[in-house]
Design goal:
Active site: 177, 373
CATH topology: TIM Barrel
CATH architecture: Alpha-Beta Barrel
Number of strands: 16
CATH class: Alpha Beta
Organism: Saccharothrix tamanrassetensis
Strand order of the largest sheet: 3-4-5-6-7-9-12-13
CATH superfamily: Glycosidases
InterPro entries: GH, GH_1_N_CS, Glyco_hydro_1, Glyco_hydro_1_beta-glucosidase
Keywords: Carbohydrate metabolism, Cellulose degradation, Glycosidase, Hydrolase, Polysaccharide degradation
Pfam families: Glyco_hydro_1 (PF00232)
Length: 473
């Protein structure tokens, strides 16, 4: 898979990807669509959260975001200019079912009709995510993902949405990052709905996974043979400074809560016994697991979506030390500060962790992998009509090399979706962090392709990444 390409610098090697490798970019509905109060859309937990003082940096909200609801056609044109072969987007549940159950809003479905048709017109494959965190507020009013009934409402929504778009969309994802929905939303409360209760996070995690399995079964029952279904997980690649028993235990605990809590039940192994033991001090959260749930959750998927951004460094702590930060519910672990080069979000940049993660998943997951999110936030500057984002370009190239290394070592990776197509509303960080390969002026809504976007376009056109160095645009 290594060759010399005449378009690269003289003698420079090009690391080629498999001939059918899928190249794309990803977004999420609440982060880009705007139009939160029109055409019958109901409020989501993120509308409520963002409207609560002090929850989102700068008091930012999802309005107007990137106004993608009105500007989708131009955005699809940008995708075509970049050479994207696929586009991963999420459908807004409250735009389709304003209260999360019952009545369907035809204007919401019509928007996704227009978007999908525009993508197909340009030959871009639509990849639909059913849930990217924007739970209808009406369901949260009844307990949200702490309430088992939400899993059944999600399956109903999945079935009707799939039925509507099944003639044009073949690739489907149920949930995006259920760990974030559960532990950031219900564990430490830094995301919507802002609940601080580690036990509730574990219960929400189970209902999310139950919802995934129920939705998968509902869609498969009427799906054409060429449809492929998945779930997208954000994985933690955990590093410790020492390889001794105490550090290995700390790594095991973090790996259990973020990775194996989801991987094991998906693989038919149920919830890991060590995670159940580690979290038993919170109370019997497994009381929400009913007979038959494990079999539903283990319903077969066709591919696994992998979201990766940075490694996590940890160390052991006293046994009764309650871990702060995102790993709500753990004891005996300290999350260490990141080191070396950092993104604008303060996340550590080290692509070696990406290869390690993919190799681990290649051993542990029985289906092909697709990189559904990978990217970096930096404080970009638009100057003279250009955004020279050298840091993001280096991050992109290094992480594509990491993916190539994993493939060369036998890992079955089928595609790569950059996060994100557009600068957007970055959840609790508001508009302060820019992940896009396309710059958005949120005042004028003018789009400008960044140098990283041009670089990705060149990688796509060659189906390969330079083996060394970072090409100038």
């Amino acid at each position: 898979m290594t060759t010399t390409d005449p378009e690269t610098q003289v003698g420079q090697e090009l690391l080629r990807f498999p001939p059918d490798f899928v190249w794309g970019a990803a977004t999420a509905a609440f982060q880009i669509e705007g139009a939160t109060g029109i055409d019958g859309r109901g409020p989501s937990i993120w509308d409520t959260f963002a409207a609560t003082p002090g929850k989102v940096l700068g008091g930012d909200t999802g309005e107007p975001a990137c106004d993608h609801y009105h500007r989708y056609a131009a955005d699809v044109g940008l995708m075509a200019d970049l050479g994207l072969g696929a586009y991963r987007f999420s459908l807004a549940w409250p735009r389709i079912q304003p209260t999360g159950a019952g009545r369907v809003e035809p204007r919401g479905l019509a928007f996704y009709d227009r978007l999908v048709d525009e993508l197909l017109e340009y030959g871009i494959q639509p990849v639909a995510t059913l849930y990217h965190w924007d739970l209808p507020q009406a369901l949260e009013d009844h307990g949200g993902w702490r309430n088992r009934d939400t899993a059944y409402r999600f399956a109903e929504y999945a079935a009707l949405t799939h039925a509507h778009l099944a003639d044009r969309v073949q690739l489907w994802t149920t949930l995006n990052e259920p760990w974030c929905s559960a532990f950031l939303g219900y564990g430490n409360g830094v995301h919507a709905p802002g609940v601080v209760d580690p036990r509730a996070a574990l219960e929400a995690a189970h209902h999310l996974m139950l919802g995934h399995g129920l939705a998968l079964r509902a869609m498969r029952s009427s799906a054409p043979a060429d449809h492929r279904f998945s779930i997208v997980l954000n994985f933690c690649s955990t590093w410790a400074d020492r390889d001794d028993e105490a550090h290995r235990v700390a790594v095991r605990k973090v790996d259990g809560l973020q990775n194996r809590l989801f991987l094991d039940p998906l693989g038919g192994r149920g919830y890991p016994a060590d995670v159940v033991e580690d979290t038993a001090w919170l109370g019997d959260w497994q009381r929400v697991v009913r007979d038959g749930d494990p079999e539903v959750i283990a319903s077969p998927i066709d591919w696994m979506g992998v979201n990766y951004y940075s490694p996590t460094r940890i160390a052991p702590a006293p046994a009764d030390h309650v871990t702060e930060g995102p790993f709500a519910g753990l004891r005996g672990v300290t999350v260490l500060p990141p080191r070396g080069e950092l993104t604008g979000f303060g996340w550590e940049v080290d692509a070696r962790a990406f290869t390690e993660l993919l190799e681990r998943l290649g051993r542990d997951v029985a289906v092909p992998l697709v990189i559904t999110e990978n990217g970096s936030a930096f404080p970009d500057v638009l100057r003279d009509g250009e955004v020279v984002d050298a840091d993001r370009t280096r991050y992109l190239i290094d992480h594509l090399r990491a993916v190539h290394t994993a493939i060369a070592r036998g890992v079955d990776v089928r595609g790569y979706f950059a996060w994100s197509l557009l600068d957007n509303f970055e959840w609790a960080a508001g508009y302060s962090q820019r992940f896009g390969i396309v710059h958005v002026d949120f005042g004028t809504q003018v789009r400008t392709v960044k140098h990283s976007g041009h670089t990705l376009g060149r990688v796509i056109s060659r189906n390969g990444v330079p083996a060394g160095g970072y090409e100038p645009v």
